[in-house]
Amino acid sequence: MAVSLTKGQRVSLDKVAPGLSEAFVGLGWDIKSTDTGYDFDLDSSLFLLGANEKLLSDNHFIFYNNLISPDPDKSVQHMGDNLTGAGEGDDELIKINLKKVPNEIQKIVICVTIHEAQQRKQNFGQVQNAFVRLVNAQTQQESVRYDLVEDYSVETALIMAELYRKDGEWRLNAVGAGYQGGLQALLDRYS
């Protein structure tokens, strides 16, 4: 049975999903019935950070134009961009092999941004039912889930969660932090 987290809650993956090595991070959302005159295009991205909480290189920013981490094992793989978010379940998926993520990567920040939010006059207040979940790739069982319940009425970028190493194990932090300034605000923070 999956563990459901609230904002700010942290959990050890060794405790909630013992032996987990390959995982899918599923992200999903629905658009409220608001008409801005444009379709909504939400994009997931990952920042692979070193101990200094900064990107190890430009190639450690994983998104729809850079789908695979630069390590030889390709331990992090973005499964592609969903342009509409239509349908049930996960809208975007990221595959992570936790056992093969290089040691210099100390934290994986999982984010969602709204493409061209300022031009389209869109924000996360117009989005509902947003979630991030961690699924065991071998068993297809959901291990951890975080449903966002806050109203982000001016934010155009969200840090959904962080996977990070502590005491030799992976942990997950349900962050739920909103930012104005879209993807650029996050790039500025982690570059």
TrEMBL record:
This is Stress protein. CDD domains: TerD_like (cd06974). InterPro entries: Stress/Tellurium_Resist, TerD. Residues 1-190 form the TerD domain. Belongs to the CAPAB/TerDEXZ family. It holds the Pfam family TerD. It comes from the Bacteria.
